[in-house]
Amino acid sequence: MKKWFIILGAALLLIVSTFNYVLSKGEFVIGSTSYIAMDAPIVKERLPFYLGYGLHWDGFGKPTLNNVTLIKHDGTELNEDDIQISVTSMIDEMGVTGVINEESVIEEGYFNEYLPVENYKVDDNFLLVFRVELHEANYENNISHLMIEYKNFGFRQQDTLEFEGFFKELE
What's the superkingdom here (predicted)? Predict the structure, then answer.
């Protein structure tokens, strides 16, 4: 009898380990990016603007997003108290946001269509939108990673992606 419990326990452990291994193999992939030049008029005037990033879920299941966090070069998280830049993340289910100023977002009615990141159920492809507001003219593009916290099959997980930031010198 004891032998059967050991065999059953080992089989159960193998099934759970395999299930966990398969679930942890999923990842988010950035498919399209948006940038704006530091010398663009909207940036110089420090007006809010929106940037869209196309992401794809490559894995089993349909994860539910919990949070999206930007990580600076020094490893710290960008938070709402940052004195140089403010960033808010949301989801654009319409899939239309590239680089757009806040005035146009409001006029076109996009703002009413943006969804919160928290509890967003990922299908396969989705458009992550950042509302960016620069507070200091001498801001250095110090964002290096994008951390996505999500649940898949009830398990909390996170995925960290390389992220080049919002600003790029356009050629």
Answer: Bacteria
- Are 84 and 59 in contact by the 8 Å Cβ rule? The answer is no
CB distance 165 to 143 below 8 Å:
yes
CA-angle at 22, arms to 17 and 25, nearest 5°: 125
- Residue 66, amino acid: N
pTM over 0.90: no
Q: Over the stretch 47-66, which tens digit does the pLDDT of each residue have?
A: 999 999 999 999 989 999 99
Question: What architecture does CATH give domain 27-162?
Answer: Sandwich (2.60)
Name every residue whose Cβ is closer than 8 Å to that of residue 115 and which is 6 or more positions away in sequence: 90, 91, 92, 93
Joined together, the tokens standing for residue 151 give 């649940």
Give the Cα separation of 16 and 131 in Å (integer): 40
